[in-house]
Structures are given as C-alpha cells and as structure tokens.
C-alpha cells in the first residue's frame, strides 16, 4: 500500500469517530510530500528522522509531528499496512512548556489606544475594526478564530449575546456580554454599518475591502500594534506576546477577581469552562497556576480558610 493511501484511510477513520483532526491531517500530508508517494515498505527511518528534525531546534512542533506519525503507524501496524514503526527510538527532551503572556491592565489600555490610532498603509484593517476586535477578544475571552468567524447574524445586541458556532470542538455556545462590552460593540456596529455590508452573512470584522479578516492578517496587524505600544516579553520566552494571549489574560483576570471577592472559585469553574467552550474542565483548571498573582490570591484564600478553621 502507498503511503498517501494509508494516511488517507487513517484520517478518514479518525474523523469517522468524531475528531476534527485537521492539524494532524496537515502534518501527515506534509509527511507524505516530504517522503514521496512511496510504498509503506520503503519508508526508511533516516527519512522519518530528517522530516522530524526539520531545519531548526527541537520545538513543540517536533513533538506534534512525532505524535501524529506515531498514531498513524499504530493504526497501520494494527491493520497490516506496515510491520514496524520507522520512528526513532530516542525522543529528544521536549522544550519547556509554553507559558502564555498575561497582559497587565496598563498594557491592555496601551494596546487599545494604539490600535485605534495606528493606520499603517500595509494594514488591511481599519483602526476601529482592529480596536474592537482586540476589545472583544479580551472582554468575551474568545478564540481569535471564533471572533473572526462572527457574522452579523451571530449578534444579538438587544440581549447582549454572541452566538459562537462550530468552535474548536464543534461546539456551538452562547456568550453573554457585560454592559460595558455590549455598549462598546453596539457603538462599533452602528459605525460599521455605515461603511460595510449589513447582510446576515457578512463578517462582523471585515477588512477594508469588506472581505473576512484571516487569522494571519489579524496577527500581522496585532504585531505592529504590540510593537508600537512597547509590549514585549523579557523572560527569555521564544515567542513575544500573542493575539491569543488576550483570551488567557481575560480568564486569569476573572479568576483573580473571583478570589478577591471571596467567590467559590471551584464551584464557578464548570461555568467558566462552559463560557470558554472547553470540553473538559481540566482545560480551565490549568489557568489556576498560570501567574504568580493568581497563585498569591489562592494562597491568601487558603490562609484565611486555615485561620478561620483554627479559631472555630
């Protein structure tokens, strides 16, 4: 059996059991291109190692490639398409776990101020569109793909609700907005509708020519805003603050506020997971250890609890 045929069968199988499998499918397609459409029996370990190694240092992408190919070969061996795995027996030490950047409130204000004023000739996004996009990513803790997929039909400004359709895990959910965010979005829409199409299928956040904004265009525009605002990492991390970190920041700020107000955070976590569109609560719980400030608030909560228990 040819490599591409076996990969196609594997991807079809994974999707038949309910997995989206887009990232892994792209990785395996790249694997087929690198090795050529050769019989499964002719795949050599040195070719696989060369594909995994790439041209740069070992990163989390090495792990993702290794995981995708490893899963494919387990499938292939179980069905007799291959007799052994050509993957290297030695797996290099993975890089340090990536830690999202949590913006301070002062940094958020600078980003929003710059976004509303920067009008670079190469930027395909109107400044007010970009500013409102950043505001919504933080205010509603959306994924960038979710915000860019919003159409006019997905807005219910009377009820202050966003309809997030077919998100990362095929979920559709309602995202309520606070009064300040709903007011800002309503003002933006009123101005937006004077320039761009109001049809139900039109994107809420269009490029200057009315076409939907892509993730790459948004990330490039944000990079210019971040540089102009002077927001940088100084902790030796490989990546500078990202657009997606606005979502992480929103969650951390909410958790800190809950701790400071005396709220029952553990009881509220399932509600937060639903709001964020997480399939498992573990995806939300990881935020509890994300920043020193959050850990400090949790520690103070525990100390107050311990003191009250000792005097009971």
UniProtKB/TrEMBL annotation:
It holds the Pfam family Phage_integrase. The keyword rRNA-binding does not apply. Keywords: DNA integration, DNA recombination, DNA-binding. It comes from the Bacteria. InterPro entries: DNA_brk_join_enz, Integrase-like_cat_sf, Integrase_catalytic, Tyrosine_recombinase_XerCD. Transmembrane segments: none annotated. Residues 98-300 form the Tyr recombinase domain. GO terms for biological process: DNA integration; DNA recombination. GO terms for molecular function: DNA binding. SUPFAM superfamilies: DNA breaking-rejoining enzymes (SSF56349). The keyword S-adenosyl-L-methionine does not apply. Belongs to the 'phage' integrase family. PANTHER family: INTEGRASE_RECOMBINASE PROTEIN MJ0367-RELATED, PHAGE INTEGRASE-RELATED. This is Tyrosine-type recombinase/integrase. It comes from Paraburkholderia tagetis.
């Amino acid at each position: 059996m040819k490599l591409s045929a076996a990969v196609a069968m594997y991807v079809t199988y994974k999707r038949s059991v309910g997995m989206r499998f887009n990232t892994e499918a792209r990785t395996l397609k790249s694997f087929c291109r690198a090795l050529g459409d050769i019989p499964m029996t002719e795949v050599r370990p040195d070719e696989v190692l060369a594909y995994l190694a790439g041209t740069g240092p070992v990163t989390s992408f090495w792990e993702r490639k290794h995981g995708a190919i490893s899963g494919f070969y387990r499938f292939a061996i179980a069905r007799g398409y291959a007799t052994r795995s050509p993957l290297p027996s030695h797996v290099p030490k993975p890089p340090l776990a990536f830690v999202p950047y949590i913006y301070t409130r002062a940094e958020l204000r600078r980003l929003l101020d710059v976004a509303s004023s920067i009008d670079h000739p190469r930027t395909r996004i109107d400044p007010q569109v970009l500013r409102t996009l950043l505001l919504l990513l933080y205010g509603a803790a959306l994924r960038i793909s979710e915000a860019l997929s919003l159409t006019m039909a997905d807005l219910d400004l009377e009820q202050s609700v966003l309809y997030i359709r077919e998100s990362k895990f095929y979920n559709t959910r309602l995202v309520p907005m606070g009064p300040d965010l709903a007011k800002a979005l309503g003002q933006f829409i009123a101005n937006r509708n004077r320039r761009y199409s109001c049809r139900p299928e039109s994107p809420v956040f269009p490029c200057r020519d009315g076409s939907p904004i892509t993730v790459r265009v948004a990330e490039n525009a944000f990079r210019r805003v971040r540089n102009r605002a002077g927001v940088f990492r100084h902790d030796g991390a490989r990546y500078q603050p990202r657009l997606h970190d606005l979502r992480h920041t929103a969650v951390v700020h909410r958790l800190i506020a809950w701790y400071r107000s005396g709220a029952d955070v553990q009881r509220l976590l399932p509600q937060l997971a639903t709001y964020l569109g997480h399939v498992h609560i573990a995806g939300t719980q990881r935020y509890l250890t994300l920043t020193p400030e959050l850990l400090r608030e949790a520690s103070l909560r525990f100390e107050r609890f311990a003191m009250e228990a000792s005097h009971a």
